[in-house]
Specification:
127 residues, alpha+beta, 2 domains, four-stranded antiparallel β-sheet, 4 helices, 4 strands, 24% strand
Length: 127
Amino acid sequence: MKKFIIVALMAMFCMTMQAQEVKTEVKQEMTGEDYRIVSDEVVDGVRYVVAAPSALVCSKQIDIQIKDGIILSVKYTRGCDGNAKGIGALIAGMTVEEAIRRLEGITCGKRLTSCPDQLAKVLKSLK
């Protein structure tokens, strides 16, 4: 009987932990925190970062080049082509800190994140 109770308690503990993990994943997805860094390397003083943004946004990849804290270029793959090109053109030459300050928290429709916000999240994670 004691073995049964211990096994039952362990099973309940495992189920509770799994439920907490699922809640965390859902929360991340809802807020757009589920982006990931695909690659991050420095070549000749230029940092090349490739990120996969949240599934909540239209873009599928963000390619970023940074040198000495200055954004050299940003290129989005997929998403709203004109807006993505516009973001890249506007922040080229801007400091990473200024880009984060300007882009962080921008939403898209009813979504809690956007392509610019995803860029800010990625840049913030690089510090």
